[in-house]
TrEMBL record:
Name assigned to this protein: HERC5 ligase
Organism: Horornis vulcanius
RCC repeats: from-to residues: 25-76, 77-118
Superkingdom of the source species: Eukaryota
Pfam families cross-referenced by the UniProt entry: RCC1 (PF00415)
Segments traversing the membrane: none
GO molecular function, one term: ligase activity
Keyword Repressor in annotation: no
Length: 291
């Protein structure tokens, strides 16, 4: 209920906490908060989605959750992390926990395009996955920080990586991403690759299963008005979008990134676009009535 009407772009789940980001970059978090992984400035758990005020106007476009830490990617390619830092997984050259989002200084200016956080693997809880992985498409390089050691091999444990350092990237990864500025999705699995138990797969958003919520498109509206599609198809599309507050809000967001300034005072919705839309569809009374 607390997220009703908010056009969501993505959700992510960690060990015992969850996060979501809206199309306008507003971040909400809830669940376990023992290490500050909710980014709310304290360690109190939350039973409901809570707005992360520290990320207001950060222009968040993607978020990833580890077991007890969180990483956030901005539209400009900046990365900030918060939560548990005991293994160096926050990338701040320390093992301190962070209760509020903090920019990873070592990545400043690098324009990161993908992020992923490691988690405890199931059904092997003895394996420790406390790391963050980032990909910079312009360099075709992966950067790693944190730990991926096996806990049962205490005598062979490697030191934690406290700052982002490059690792060799698998072949042909960059080619699939350099043409797409919004290619951000990384998934990691416990398969051996250069360092223990990490294998990275990159998918462009065009091929991803996550296509986003239904929103209005000019071509679609033109098809409605011209009746170039069947009435049944038009009716189905209209009901899909206009039965959801979130889809309606997402359809009329301010253009040119102005919607990233959304706050409690600024809705991010362009009312002039709403008026233009209704004026446009008024040319077709049947469509107008259905909407």
């Amino acid at each position: 209920e607390r997220l009703k009407g908010i056009p969501l772009a993505q959700i992510a789940a960690g060990g015992a906490h969850s996060t979501t980001v809206s199309l306008s970059g507003a971040v909400y978090s809830w669940g376990k908060n023992s290490f500050g992984q909710l980014g709310l400035g304290d360690t109190k758990d939350r039973d409901w989605p809570t707005y992360v005020g520290a990320l207001e106007h950060w222009k968040t476009v993607f978020i990833s959750c580890g077991a007890d830490h969180t990483a956030v990617l901005s539209k400009e390619g900046l990365v900030c992390t918060f939560g548990a830092g005991g293994a160096g997984q926050l990338g701040h050259n320390s093992t301190r926990n962070e209760l509020l989002p903090r920019v990873v200084a070592e990545l400043w200016g690098a324009r990161v395009s993908h992020i992923a956080c490691g988690r405890y693997e199931v059904p092997m809880p003895c394996l420790l996955r406390q790391y963050t992985l980032v990909y910079i498409s312009s360099l075709d390089k992966f950067y790693f920080f944190g730990s991926d050691d096996e806990r049962q091999l205490e005598d062979k444990r490697k030191p934690n990586q406290l700052i982002p350092l490059p690792i060799s990237s698998p072949g042909n990864t960059g080619k699939s991403c350099q043409s797409n500025d919004h290619c951000r999705c990384i998934q990691s699995n416990p398969i051996c690759y250069n360092f223990n138990f990490v294998n990275v797969f990159i998918y462009s958003t065009q091929n991803s299963f996550l296509n986003g919520i239904a929103t209005l498109e000019d071509k679609e509206v033109d098809a409605w008005i011209s009746n170039s599609k069947s009435h049944r198809s038009i009716k189905k599309n209209i009901r899909l979008i206009f039965s959801s507050e979130a889809c309606i809000n997402g359809s009329f967001l301010d253009k040119r990134d102005k919607h990233f300034k959304t706050s409690r005072e600024v809705s991010g919705v362009d009312m002039s676009e709403v008026k233009c839309f209704y004026k446009k569809i008024s040319k077709n009374p049947t469509v107008y009535q259905e909407v």
